[in-house]
Amino acid sequence: MLWSDPENEPPEELRDMQDMLRRLGLFLALAMVLAMIVLGIG
Fold it and tell me: What is the dihedral of CA 11, 17, 23, 24, to 10 degrees?
């Protein structure tokens, strides 16, 4: 890394994308649990 490089702050889009992916992962995990429960009951 060069001294002249800026601080490695992630760009705005990258942060938004990571946030969206985190929410998507949470949603998918919840959906999986729900599906397991429904299949278990069914």
Answer: -160
* Sign of the dihedral through C-alpha 18, 24, 28, 29: positive
Amino acid at the residue 24: L
pLDDT tens digits for range 8-22: 777 899 999 999 999
* Alpha carbon distance 24, 16 (integer Å): 12
End-to-end CA distance of the chain: 57
Pairwise CA distance, residues 22 & 32, whole Å: 15
Does this model's pTM top 0.70?
Answer: no
Q: Nearest CA to 18 among 7, 30, 26?
A: 26
